[in-house]
Every structure is written in C-alpha cells, then in structure tokens.
UniProtKB/TrEMBL annotation:
Membrane-traversing stretches: 6-27, 34-56, 62-80, 151-170, 176-200
Keywords noted in UniProt: Cell membrane, Membrane, Transmembrane, Transmembrane helix
Alphabetized InterPro entries for the sequence: DedA-like, VTT_dom
Lineage: Bacteria, Bacillati, Actinomycetota, Actinomycetes, Bifidobacteriales
Membrane topology note: Multi-pass membrane protein
Top-level taxon in the UniProt lineage: Bacteria
Record flagged with keyword Kinase: no
Identification of the protein by name: SNARE associated Golgi protein
Family assignment from sequence similarity: Belongs to the DedA family.
Length: 215
C-alpha cells in the first residue's frame, strides 16, 4: 500500500480534519466506483485506537468520543452505499448503459436480479465487511432494480454494525500495548483478514472449474 494511503499517514496528515477526511474516504469507497483501493476497515479501526489515545496520542482526534466517531463513520458508510445504489439504478436507464444492458447482458442482469431477490438482503449486509465487494455491490444491486426499501433496510443494518464494531474494536484492543505499538502490522493484518473471504472464494472457484474441465 502506498504510504499516502496508509491509515496512519492519513490521520496524521489530516490533523484536526482527520474525522471528516476519514468519513469522505469511507463514503468514496462505496459511493464512487473508483474507491475500491481506498483503506476502509483499517482506517476506521485506527480511528478507534486514536480516540482511546493509544495510537497517535498527539493527534487532535485523541480522546474524541467514540460515539461521535461511530455516528460519523456509520452515516458516511450508509450514504456511500445509497449513492452507489442510486448510480446503478439510474445508470441502467441511461444512454451510456442502455446498449450494454441488452442481449446477453440483459440475461445476466435478470439472473443477478433473481440472485438478489433470493439472497440480496443477507448479501448486502455481508458485503459491507468485505473490501472491493462492498464497493461494487450497491451499484450491482441498483442495476438490477432491487427493491429500494429492502436495500435501505439491509444497508442500514450493515453500516450500523460495521460503523459500531470496527471503531469499538480499535478503541478496546488499542489498550493492548502489543497492538498499540505495532500499528502498521495491525493495519496490514486487518486488510489481509478482510480480503480472505475473496481469496477463499477464488480458490474454491478455481478448483471447481478445474474439476469440471477434467471431468
């Protein structure tokens, strides 16, 4: 990860604007389709550590109420997902994507719609906890014209849990000296844990595909 994208650098460089900048990054990760490379989990976890003053104790965010961080991050995540959904929903009917949504792609969208009708609620909630996947899921759900009210409900649950859990974990675990003294390593571990479901899924798909080919 480039140094300017490291959570520690972002919070240090942003100074008193660290919480606002972090919220914008959380929003962009799902609200803009190009936000998949932005740090999300590790940044929010570190915010919790900073609020406990166990990491970056000289930061203006030190001793910031944990509740405030959870609320700001939760709202940013919710609005980001809603924006991604709206981009997909309105994009499907735009001239830019109309030609793409015809023919075989129309069949794929129909299958995607059937998938989200059956598994969408759980998928939307779980996607919030998987980097990259959470970037594209709201847009994909919007493309299928998945029920808006159901999306809002699932999105609210997912972002509420995520926005509460990660800062709180950072706040509590940051009190452990081993974690507080190894911020970079902790951030890397969080990223690895976050993408593990995608890696496992990819390996399983590759094995299944190879087995089908050999059969």
């Amino acid at each position: 990860m480039p140094s300017f994208l490291s959570p520690e650098f972002i919070i240090s460089a942003a100074g008193p604007w660290a919480l606002i900048i972090s919220a914008l990054i959380v929003f962009a990760e799902t609200g803009l389709l190009v936000g998949f490379f932005l740090p999300g989990d590790s940044l929010v976890f570190l915010l919790g550590m900073v609020s406990a003053a166990t990491a970056l104790p000289d930061s203006p965010l030190a001793h910031t109420p944990l509740a405030l961080i959870c609320v700001v991050i939760g709202i940013a995540a919710f609005v980001g997902d809603q924006t991604g959904y709206e981009l997909g929903r309105k994009g499907r009917d735009s001239r830019l994507l109309q030609s793409w949504t015809q023919g075989k792609n129309a069949e794929r969208l129909e299958r995607a719609h059937s998938f989200f009708v059956k598994y969408g609620y759980k998928a939307i909630i779980l996607a919030r906890f998987v980097p990259i996947l959470r970037t594209f899921t709201p847009f994909a759900v919007g493309l299928t014209h998945y029920d808006h009210k159901k999306f809002i409900s699932a999105n609210l649950i997912g972002t509420l849990i995520w926005g509460l859990a990660l800062p709180t974990l950072g706040h509590q675990l940051g009190r452990v000296s081993l974690i507080a003294n190894n911020i970079d390593a902790v951030c890397i571990i969080i990223v690895l844990i976050s993408v593990m479901p995608l890696v496992v899924k990819g390996i399983r798909s590759a094995i299944a595909s190879r087995g089908a080919t050999q059969a």
